[in-house]
Amino acid sequence: xxxxxxxxxxxxxxxxxxxxxxxxxxxxxxxxxxxxxxxxxxxxxxxxxxxxxxxxxxxxxxxxxxxxxxxxxxxxxxxxxxxxxxxxxxxxxxxxxxxxxxxxxxxxxxxxxxxxxxxxxxxxxxxxxxxxxxxxxxxxxxxxxxxxxxxxxxxxxxxxxxxx
Length: 164
Known about the structure:
This protein is α/β, with parallel strands linked by helices. It is built from 5 helices and 5 strands; from the N terminus they run βαβαβαβαβα.
């Protein structure tokens, strides 16, 4: 892991990392991060993680097709999220697509960009729990390399405006 964040050093600017996934609440994280970027004079990095399927050798052709479809779906998801961020804050976020395990790729992106100042996630407000990534991160928060902000998926735009 990067030992020092450079986000507030001369020539750098703070960035907020947001995971764009298939959850219903991803929009809350993008909304908060975009509002934060306006106030902090920073940027937003949007990450889409493609978790690879386990395939046997005889299915490699199918795996290639599935990988191409996942890449296409990732681009479409990031297009939607970037459009939302631009509509909120007139910013053009950086876009990153990674393939692999969610935690490994999340940590790698943070390690590779010393300007990332925080991670913003949105939690599912339903009875089924906050979501797999929020639950996974709960176990790693004590050693996580940047602050993590978790936004309730139940917050309205007006409520997020008041907090960011």
